[in-house]
Write a structure and sequence with these properties.
By secondary structure, this protein is α/β, with parallel strands linked by helices. 24% of the residues lie in helices and 27% in strands.
Length: 350
């Protein structure tokens, strides 16, 4: 077990991988290009509300993620769906109320915010083993070791596990020797989870929509938001609505998007919307440490779990991991955890 392992990325997959490797006795360092932990898990706390601008929900069939939550003593609660939903078909007509269908799949959220799982994993791993603001630029193979070069220093290691989205990995890090051409081709055509999402949340001092028999769920064909959900805390001390914006609004200013959202919410819920406390948002395609921002269209989940990602490279010292490389639930939190488990099993076997 006297092997030094560097993991690229301190999101859910990278942190889970490090946590599991440490349990097996390996020495692990995590290099994170960003100045924060979490990757595409991003919870902002304001006015007692836990605003999820990244990954939010899990489901009962997410068995690996649920098991990890149990191991870390993380509690879940049901997404509140009680009451009528609203649907806006056309600008010329007001949103219509309808009953949500019974027996639908229950969605769960994490008590105190999704970032709780990130914080608990980081505590288990030890902050001294996690290096932020450490963007890797080169990975070179010398005989039976790899050197990992960041903007700050160079590390000599036995193994490298990348949890960086494959397309970003290929385009942001120089490999010597180069990776196989089929890996480069597939990686450049692999969809990056969250890339197409603009998430927003708006905080209020009361959940006024509930008094009118509404669930907070809304859908719109005309935008600016396309989906909307109740986003209050399980403790009922923070009240918010959260949803997804039309991707075509990405080039507007935040102030312009905010004004459009408020105008639409007033059509859904009335003048009480004017009393909102906070508006916040996240345009994921503009996150340069998460994805490549260009005009290339890639279908959602395209090449997630592709066979080329299941191999190891650079004399079996480099593993390409992360949720996009998982064959099951690729592009979700569950895929991130399952892929971490697979990689740890592969390394311990090797």
């Amino acid at each position: 077990m006297e092997k030094n392992i560097v993991i690229l990325g301190a999101g859910l997959s990278g942190l889970t991988t490090a946590y599991l490797l440490q349990k097996e006795g390996f020495s692990v360092k995590i290099l994170e290009a960003n100045t924060r932990l979490g990757g595409r898990i991003y919870t902002k706390k304001t006015n007692n509300a836990n605003i999820e601008l990244g990954a939010t929900w899990l489901w009962k069939y997410n068995t690996a993620l649920i098991q990890l939550c149990k191991e870390l003593d993380i509690q879940l609660f049901e997404q509140k769906m009680d009451g009528d939903a609203l649907f806006e078909a056309m600008n010329a007509h007001p949103p219509q109320r309808f009953n949500l269908p019974p027996n639908q799949e229950i969605s769960y959220r994490i008590v105190d915010g999704t970032h709780t799982i990130i914080e608990k994993l980081a505590f288990k791993i030890g902050r001294e083993n996690i290096y932020l603001d450490e963007k890797v630029t080169h990975i070179n193979q010398f005989e039976n070791q790899l050197t990992v070069t960041s903007k700050n220093k160079t590390y000599e290691v036995d193994y490298v596990i990348s949890t960086v989205p494959p397309r970003l990995l290929i385009q942001s890090i120089t490999f010597s020797p180069e990776l196989p051409k089929d890996v480069i081709t597939v990686a450049n055509q692999t969809h990056t989870w969250m890339k197409d999402s603009i998430k927003f949340a708006i905080v209020f001092d009361t959940p006024f929509w509930r008094k009118n028999g509404l669930s907070g769920v809304g859908f719109s064909n005309v935008g600016p938001f396309t989906e909307l959900y109740d986003h209050c805390t399980v403790q009922e001390n923070g009240f918010a609505l959260m949803g997804f914006l039309n991707g075509g609004l990405a080039e507007l200013t935040k102030e312009q998007r905010e004004a459009k959202v408020i105008l639409q919410l007033k059509k859904f819920f009335g003048e009480q919307v004017n009393n909102y406390l906070v508006y916040d948002e996240k345009i994921w395609k503009k996150e340069t440490l998460t994805c490549i921002h260009d005009n290339q269209f890639i279908f959602p989940h395209q090449n997630n779990g592709h066979e080329v990602f299941q191999d190891s490279f650079m004399n079996h010292k480099l593993y390409i991991s992360g949720t996009e490389t998982s064959k099951t639930y690729g592009g979700y939190m569950e895929g991130a955890v399952r892929r971490a488990i697979e990689i740890v099993q592969q390394i311990t076997k090797d």
